[in-house]
């Protein structure tokens, strides 16, 4: 069963209440965080600097999930899975659609040796090496996204585990340090779950330092403290490394993008056919089906908040302003709508509005995901079925039917 495993599903009720019930509060909190940031002097990094140049390779990408992370097959992380989940045909299709990069989710746990984290098993790395090389052979850039489950991230409360994770990152980065730094990027951690943003700032700085020791020339991707949210990104100041790209995830409003989901807020799985854009009139039917008064209010607020392209622009515009203030490149490494219950045309409208707004502000993007619960390509009976509606919403091209051609060498 294709589900979206971003692993923010353990958010506490208070956080859901803040994000989903606060009406205009998310935009105001973004503004407040931005005003705090603007109180500090900006950096002097020019926009023709190395990370800006390399960010040009990350303009429009797709997430490769459930391959080296989010593997819920009872057999687990096996050679058979690695060699069959995605093949050269998948990567060529990604290229044919018009994506310029992929974000490869990698769960570190299967190759993490406690107290010997720098000793990464060679056999496991060989499977990953094959996947990375296949991506590069198809002339795609690749983000190596360290994407563990929540229990791994919870262990970062322990300083000794932070040091072990730094050992892992140093060795992992060194292993890939011989690959083209214009095409291979290191993402520190998918959706951190550190409640204290100041602690996360320190942890992230330590991990950036470890990556830099292992790979002096490669660009690093970082994020804010909690779930890579937009407001957590604008809370932080840039790290003390000039070769860094700053990343956020955008799924606002979750009540629309995650309708039908069985993780996160418990009432989401009841929702279906919730419309976008929203207004007080078009959510009445959904309100009538919701027995809980609190969640009925959530739906009413979704309607009264008038979520549309201008509302999306207001939030993304603040993130872009933060990037301009600090003179750092910003990317959106996840956005999308769960396919199961959202109206297809409305889903496409939201994707188009987010994508075009990101492009308006010069922010590169990576949609979630290739063939999972938010898919751009549906795998059925051994066939790869590109979703024309989603591809057009992304401003890309629908490839002609038939087998894909072998990749052209650079």
Could you characterize what this model shows?
The chain has helices at about 15-20, 25-40, 50-55, 80-85, 90-95, 120-135, 150-155, 160-175, 195-215, 230-235, 255, 285-290, 295-305, 310-325, 345-360, 390-395, and strands at about 60-70, 100-105, 140-145, 185, 220, 245-250, 330-335, 365, 375-380, 385. Mean pLDDT is about 90; it is low at about 1-30, about 35-40 and about 405-410. The chain is α/β, with parallel strands linked by helices. It has a single domain (about 15-255, about 315-395), classed as TIM Barrel (Alpha-Beta Barrel), CATH 3.20.20. The protein has 16 helices and ten strands. The strands form two sheets. Strands 1-2-3-4-5-6-7-8 form an eight-stranded parallel β-barrel, surrounded by four helices. The chain has a two-stranded antiparallel sheet with strand order 9-10.
Short summary of the structure?
By secondary structure, the protein is an alpha/beta fold. It has helices spanning 13-21, 25-38, 50-55, 79-84, 88-97, 122-137, 150-154, 159-175, 197-214, 230-235, 254-257, 284-289, 293-304, 309-326, 344-360, 388-393, and strands at 60-68, 101-106, 141-146, 184-187, 219-222, 244-250, 330-335, 364-367, 377-380, 383-386. Helix 2 (25-38) runs parallel beside helix 14 (309-326) and helix 14 (309-326) runs parallel beside helix 15 (344-360).
């Amino acid at each position: 069963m294709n589900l979206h495993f971003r692993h923010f599903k353990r958010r506490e009720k208070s956080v859901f209440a803040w994000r989903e019930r606060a009406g205009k509060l998310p935009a105001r909190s973004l503004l407040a965080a931005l005003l705090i940031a603007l109180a500090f002097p900006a950096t002097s990094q020019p926009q023709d600097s190395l990370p800006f140049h390399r960010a040009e390779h990350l303009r429009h990408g797709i997430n490769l999930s459930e391959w080296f992370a989010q593997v819920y097959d009872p057999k687990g992380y096996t050679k058979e899975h690695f060699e069959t989940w995605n093949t050269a045909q998948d990567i060529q299709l990604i290229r044919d659609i018009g994506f310029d990069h992929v974000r490869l989710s990698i769960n570190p746990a299967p190759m993490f040796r406690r107290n010997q984290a720098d000793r990464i098993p060679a056999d496991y790395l060989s499977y990953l090496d094959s996947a990375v090389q296949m991506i590069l052979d198809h002339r795609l850039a690749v983000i190596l996204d360290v994407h563990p489950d929540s229990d791994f991230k919870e262990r970062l409360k322990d300083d000794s585990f932070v040091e072990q994770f730094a050992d892992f990152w140093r060795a992992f980065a060194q292993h890939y340090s011989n690959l083209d730094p214009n095409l291979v990027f290191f993402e520190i951690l998918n959706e951190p779950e550190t409640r204290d943003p100041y602690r996360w700032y320190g942890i992230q700085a330590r991990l950036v330092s470890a990556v830099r020791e292992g790979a002096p020339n490669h660009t690093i991707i970082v994020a804010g403290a909690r779930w890579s949210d937009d407001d957590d990104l604008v809370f932080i100041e840039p790290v003390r490394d000039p070769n860094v790209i700053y990343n956020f995830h955008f799924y606002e409003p979750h009540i629309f993008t995650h309708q039908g989901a069985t993780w996160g807020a418990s009432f989401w799985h009841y929702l279906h056919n919730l419309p976008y854009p929203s207004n007080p009139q078009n959510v009445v039917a959904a309100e009538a089906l919701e027995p809980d008064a609190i969640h009925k209010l959530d739906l009413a607020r979704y309607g009264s908040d008038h979520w549309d392209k201008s509302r999306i622009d207001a939030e993304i515009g603040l993130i872009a302003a933060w990037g301009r203030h600090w003179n750092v490149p910003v990317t959106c490494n996840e956005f999308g709508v769960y396919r199961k219950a959202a109206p297809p045309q409305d889903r496409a409208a939201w994707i188009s509005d987010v994508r075009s707004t990101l492009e308006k502000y010069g922010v590169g993007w990576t949609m979630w995901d290739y063939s999972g619960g938010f898919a751009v390509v549906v795998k059925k009976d051994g066939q790869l079925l590109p979703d024309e509606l989603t591809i057009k919403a992304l401003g890309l091209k629908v490839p002609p039917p038939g087998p894909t051609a072998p990749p052209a060498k650079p």
